[in-house]
Amino acid sequence: MVSESQFAFLRSIDTPTVCNLIEIVAPERRGAGYTAVHLHCPFPDLPPMVGFAKTVAIRARDAVSGPSYMQKRMDYLDYVAAEPRPSVVLIQDLDEPPGYGAFWGEVQTNVHKALGCLGTVTNGSVRDIPAVALDFQMLAGSIAPSHAYVHVVEFGIPVTIHGMAAKSGDLIHADRHGAVIVPVDKIDAMKCALDGLMKQEARIITAAKSGMGVEAIKAAFRG
Q1: Which phi and psi (to 5°) does residue 51 adopt?
Q2: Which residues contact 96 (CB under 8 A, 6 or more apart)?
Q3: How far apart are alpha carbons 198 and 68 in whole angstroms?
Q4: Cα–Cα distance, 36 to 107 (Å, whole number)
Q5: What pTM did the predictor assign?
Q6: pLDDT class for 223, splitting at 50, 70, 90?
Q7: What is the 3-state secondary structure (H, E, C) of 55-96?
Q8: Residues 61-64: contacts with CB within 8 Å, 24+ apart?
Q9: pLDDT for 7-27, tens place per residue?
Q10: 220 near 207, Cβ under 8 Å?
Q11: Is residue 180 within 8 Å of 139, Cβ to Cβ?
């Protein structure tokens, strides 16, 4: 469980700061659990999104249809609508190269927002940038004009998006910089570590701006 105060804390800081705090309270996580390749962010001024992962695999090159697929679409919507919420949909595009057809556009963003979704992180493509649902954040591998034959292959499964290996239910923090998986059991420790981190960074930056040279900067690093 994540309390509202914990959500509020996480929403108040950007994703690089979340990564810095994880390094302090869970040093074994320093080199894993975050996106490591550039993602396009058409709405860089939106605040961070913090939500539970809904994981999906898609393809768009080949057509799929029929009653069985329609049932899968309906089951997928039930999955997105279910707790835990709010959610961030993590979509791994299995096509090579990914992004042949965009899952996300005007229709899907409005549908998913209605089901408690804050946004998406995907190695695939997005489209309809001016027409997507209000305040729906998108971090995507590319931007493309067509949805081609885009379809859900599977959901609720482990995915890897630009180096971030995630599973359904993981707590995701994401903004213009990328995304990171937040260790839920470390949130309170992260909150306690924030003040010390901010003071350390301020001390180093002040020394760098002081004009007093390298010795002042080294002293600031030493604390």
Answers
A1: -160, 175
A2: none
A3: 53
A4: 29
A5: 0.94
A6: confident
A7: EEEEECCCCCCCHHHHHHHHHHHHHHHCCCCCEEEEEEECCC
A8: 61/95, 61/100, 61/101, 61/148, 61/149, 62/149, 63/149, 64/149, 64/151
A9: 999 999 999 999 999 999 999
A10: yes
A11: no
Q: Euclidean distance between the first and final Cα of the chain, in Å?
A: 36
What is the Cα gyration radius of the chain? 20
Query: Could you check whether the bond before residue 48 is cis, i.e. omega within 30 degrees of 0?
Result: no
**Cβ atoms of residues 105 and 131 within 8 Å:** yes
**What would the mean pLDDT of 178-190 be, rounded to a whole number?**
98
Residue 26 near residue 186, CB atoms below 8 Å: yes
Amino acid identity for residue 103 in this structure: F
Q: What is the pLDDT of residues 34-84, one digit of tens each?
A: 999 999 999 999 999 999 999 999 999 999 888 889 999 999 999 999 999
| Tokens matching residue 201 | 């960074």
| Residue 134 pLDDT exceeds 90 | yes
Structure tokens at 150: 């885009």
